[in-house]
Amino acid sequence: MFIPIPKPIRKILTIMRGGVSPVIIFISVMLGFTFGLIPGFSGLHAVLIAIVFLLNVHIGLFLLSAVFGKGLCFAAAPVLYHIGMAVQGNLSSLLKFLASIPIIGITDFSKYAVVGGLIAGPVVGVVAGLLLARSVIGFRRTLLKVEENSEKFKLWYSKTWVRILDRILIGKRTKDTKALFTVKTKIIRKAGVAFAVILLVIFGVATHFLKDTKIKEYAAVKLTQLNGAEVNLESLKLSILNGEASVSGIQVTDANNP
Question: Domain of 223?
Answer without folding.
Answer: 208-252
